Amino acid sequence: MTRSRSLGLTARICRRLLWSVCAGALLSSIVVAEPQLLSGPPQAWLADDQEPITPIPPPPRADPLKLALGERLFSDVRLSAHGDLSCLSCHDIRTNGANGRNSRTSQDGSTPSFDTLTIFNAALNFRLAWDGRFRTLESQAEASLENPANMHTSTAEVIRKLNADPGMIRQFDAAYGHAPDRESFLDALVTFESSLLTPGSRFDRWLEGDASALTTTELDGYRMFKSLGCSSCHQGVNVGGNLFGRLGVFRGSVSGPARMRVPSLRNIATTAPYFHDGSAATLEGAVRRMATAQLMRKLTDDQVTLLVAFLNTLTGNYRGNPVTGAMP
Q1: Residue range 265-307, pLDDT digits in tens
Q2: Quick check: helix, strand or coil at residue 245?
Q3: Please, what are the domains in the chain?
């Protein structure tokens, strides 16, 4: 055999081996083995550095003057054209960080196409909004101000209103050394929004070594969450929020844009209704539909119960109190 023929044969063998490895990896992401139930502390069955989810950190350190100013701005109705809406109107931090309603009428009289996302832990997402079009909290906030369906105003108009308030001028001067302007206004607002993290969920406590934080059922639900493939998209510190996904991989049971940012599952038990259009009233219903559309699986009642049990452990705390569902 000549050297050239030998090299050609070697190349073909390498290509076939590479194809086998790639095909095996692809199949392993689709064909899912039946999950095995487990119990006991995490150290008993999986090393900490192998977990696909990491605990939420405490809120970042921030200047208390800027933080207080940002909180005041977050609830200030002067941020809307007609003085009847604030950020708090749609992102109620007294409950789940959203409004819990998918039928709210917008400022321009239209019905929103997208359900309101929670502001809690939004700072941990790699992109913002359902379609992921915003890369920073600043750009999202400014776009919301200018959106006719939301605040229907402009940053310049908001700054004009704030500079007409002597008390607000004093608060900006104390925090920034000057009267309100675009940069300081957005910085204060984002400083507060970045503080809206909800650490201390029971699942995070378990990740950090508290073996008593979860029940056997909840641990079994977590194991199933991973073995079914849910953690392929819902992982990281925010249990999602760090990549784009295609809806209806196997079955189009979830209508809407073909590509959207994978939402976070943090505090998911408190943020019904579910999906971008609010079409799933319950967490159980959302789990079943996602299994069909994304995993080509029809889950049993027991499987749904286990998964929901795990998802219920993702509810964190804001200012020392558990996040709750929206007010009726």
Answers
A1: 999 999 999 998 888 999 999 999 999 988 889 999 999 999 9
A2: strand
A3: 29-57+199-322 (1.10.760.10), 64-194 (1.10.760.10)
